[in-house]
Amino acid sequence: MYDGYYSSKKTDDICDNVCGQGRPAFSMSRVKCLLRGFDLKAIVFLLVVLPFCIFTVYMHGQKISYFFRPLWESPPKPFHEIPHYYGRSVSMESLCKLHGWKIRESPRRVYDAILFSNEIDILTVRWNELYPYVNQFVLLESNSTFTGLPKRLHFANNRDKFKFIQPRLIYGMIGGRFKKGENPFVEEAYQRVALDQLLKIAGIEDDDLLIMSDADEIPSAHTINLLRWCDDIPPILHLQMRNYMYSFEFYTDNNSWRASVHRYESGKTQYAHYRQSDYLLSDAGWHCSFCFRRISEFIFKMKAYSHNDRVRFSHYMDPRRIQDVICKGTDLFDMLPEEYTFKDIIGKMGPIPHSHSAIHLPAYILNNSEKYKFLLPGNCIREDSG
Ligand SMILES: *[C@@H]1O[C@H](CO)[C@@H](O)[C@H](O)[C@H]1NC(C)=O
Ligand SMILES: *[C@@H]1O[C@H](CO)[C@@H](O)[C@H](O)[C@H]1NC(C)=O
Ligand SMILES: *[C@@H]1O[C@H](CO)[C@@H](O)[C@H](O)[C@H]1NC(C)=O
After folding, report:
1. Residue 254 alpha carbon to ligand 2 centre in Å
2. Is the distance from CB of 293 to CB of 121 less than 8 angstroms?
3. What is the pTM of this model?
4. Which position has the higher pLDDT, 161 or 11?
């Protein structure tokens, strides 16, 4: 260390001596001196470091801003988390009592309402899970994605797969507005208002239970059974769910909270997918994101997604890349974890660890494990991967 410092100091000294002299004979040396001194560093900076920085920000700008998210965004107000009790052979009376609620003489009627995009398989799992306890299933689909792209009516085209639900189904279709360049959340809000209308058509009444969630947020059957049988449950209750990505092999965390259950109040209850109350029932189901059978469905969803600004490079849509991402548990959009503290961001960087547990999953998947094996651990290869 000392040597290096000494010799560079010495060079500077020589340079200073030479450059300090104003005679023309030394002009060549002077150029050399300029290059060797500050200006050489400036040239290197302009030609190498600066373009490199610009390139890095271009490639990873979103990552950089997400990394610093804890500085500009604080976490939402914490929920009041309600402990959740369940055991297979515990009576409903005891379960209600454990939660501090009374049991009713008869259960409430239950409505399950969703806006449907293209999640045919996860919809099958959802409806089979909830079937025993839901009186009316309400489904609305549009020929427009939230991002304003024309979309096929995936439910209408696959209706023969859902014969079992037919007597309990209220189906609605709404034409898209196809406004170019509009914020996707506007089309989403428009479709949710239409879903409110459809619920009225379906005959929902005060104090009926209404499940508001995306198709891939699946409440567990026993949770809905509990809420329909117990009195005094909060008027609006969010459901905490376990987050999974691509299949039940990749458990990410238990921070899903957007799904909610409402005791319907006409004139007041509005279909929404944001925070509506402070109550959160612990461990109430599964949120399986991008749990698709085919790569083509991943590509569709990536384009149709409200956050489609995340598709920054066309190679993100390469089917071989997507298959690789699904098997490794990395991120489809090459994003950093969306968290509120540096500790959580750093803790979640890199691929999601593989899980080998397939207990406490929706029963329909295990009952039909051959058909749904792509959702179970160890089966990441999709049907249409080249
Ligand atoms: C969408 O549906 C509406 C209502 O049925 C129809 O008028 C419109 O032509 C459809 N648009 C596309 C692109 O399919
Ligand atoms: C949710 O995850 C946290 C952190 O991993 C854990 O401490 C907590 O017990 C989990 N809650 C449930 C209900 O699984
Ligand atoms: C799973 O299979 C069992 C036994 O056939 C049946 O009783 C149960 O209802 C099935 N559950 C679902 C959700 O398919």
Report:
1. 6
2. yes
3. 0.84
4. 161
- Residues with C-beta less than 6 Å from any ligand 2 atom: 254, 282-283
pLDDT score of 10 more than 50: no
- Taking the CA of 172 as reference, the closest ligand is 1
Q: What is the mean pLDDT of residues 88-101?
A: 97
- Paired strand residues for 279: 80
Residue 42 has pLDDT above 90, yes or no: no
Ligand 2 mean position to 241 CA, how many Å? 10
Which atom of ligand 3 lies closest to the CA of 129? 13
Please give the CATH number for the structural domain made up of 76-296.
3.90.550
Kindly give the distance from the C-alpha atom of residue 151 to the centroid of ligand 1, in angstroms, as a whole number: 10
Q: Find the helix packing angle between 2-19 and 27-36, rounded to 10°.
A: 140
Could you tell me the residue ranges of all domains in the chain?
A: 1-36, 76-296
Measuring from each residue's beta carbon to the nearest atom of ligand 1, which residues come in under 6 Å?
A: 143, 150, 175-176
Residue nearest to atom 1 of ligand 1 (CA): 175
* pLDDT tens-digit readout, 192-218: 999 999 999 999 999 999 999 999 999
Measure 317 CA to ligand 1 centroid, in angstroms.
27
Round the CA-based radius of gyration of the chain to a whole number and report it.
Answer: 29
Asked whether 367 lines ligand 3 (CB < 6 A), one says yes
For residue 152, give the H/E element and its range.
Answer: none
Query: What is the C-alpha to C-alpha distance for residues 209 and 330, in angstroms, rounded to an integer?
Result: 37
Could you say which ligand is closest to the alpha carbon of residue 133? Answer: 3
Alpha helix (H) residue ranges in the chain = 2-19, 27-36, 38-44, 50-67, 69-72, 92-98, 120-130, 154-157, 184-201, 221-229, 295-304, 319-328, 342-348, 363-367
Residue 45: its pLDDT value, please? 80
| Ligand 3 atom with minimal separation from the 363 CA | 13
pLDDT of residue 28: 58
- The CA 368 to ligand 3 mean position distance, Å, reads 9
| Residue pointed to by tokens 């297979």 | 88
Cα angle at 147 between 142 and 152, to 5 degrees?
A: 35
Distances (CA, A) of 231 to 101, 209, 221: 6, 12, 18
Residue among 230, 18, 5 at smallest CA distance from 106: 230
